[in-house]
UniProtKB/TrEMBL annotation:
Pfam families: adh_short_C2. This is 3-hydroxybutyrate dehydrogenase. It comes from Pseudooceanicola nanhaiensis. Belongs to the short-chain dehydrogenases/reductases (SDR) family. GO terms for molecular function: 3-hydroxybutyrate dehydrogenase activity. One of its GO terms (biological process) is monocarboxylic acid metabolic process.
Amino acid sequence: MSLSGKTAIITGSTSGIGLGIARALAGQGADIVVNSFSDSQEDHGIAEGIASEFGVKARYVQADMSKADQCRALVETAGACDILVNNAGIQHVAAIDEFPVEKWDAIIAINMSSAFHTTAVALPMMRKAGWGRVINVASAHGLTASPYKSAYVTAKHGIVGMTKVVALETAEEPITANAICPGYVHTPLVEAQIPDTMKKYDLSREDALRDVILQRQPSKQFATVEQIGGVASFLCSAAAEQITGTTISVDGGWTAL
């Protein structure tokens, strides 16, 4: 499979799942637009590293995914968008009656509304090019729920619903829209939480992973960013041309419970 000549925009892609997907698509020959809100030298260096390693064009474009105009400007600045991966997301945990309003607004904006804005600008580009893939990174929490994560669960359910709408609106075109629903993925952010979990529950690393962090993941193993990237690559392949409007769970059996 080759994605040579295709341009992929991946939101929230300087680390974790987003970076894993960016690297996977670059490995298939796609030119890459890396994004975050911080606009640091390190951010630009990540894009330069992808370009050097995979021999593709890659650049960093700053955009705050909580701002509608910046979401749209990200795609416009890229100038082309054959593959749009809506990945940016944040989290906050609190009971509904104690959930800070500003956190709710930020999570809904970044995790859900940003995908509406980027997709609205990307679809005309895909139609002009005669090919397109919209890949939304949802979550197991887009298919099920957990307490104290009201904004996150709401946003991820919304992303799954919007994926279906985009798929129906493009069903007779060479454009597909699908959602990847990861369970717990081993990212630098998750790795950083492990020592605190061990300390809080007075557990070994192995027990903290199995009994606390991966408690809801039947496989008791993390998914990897490379596996999520592989699923994204598959959705861009010819084999996936008739896969649209659906979810693909990468959750170790979580949603089978």
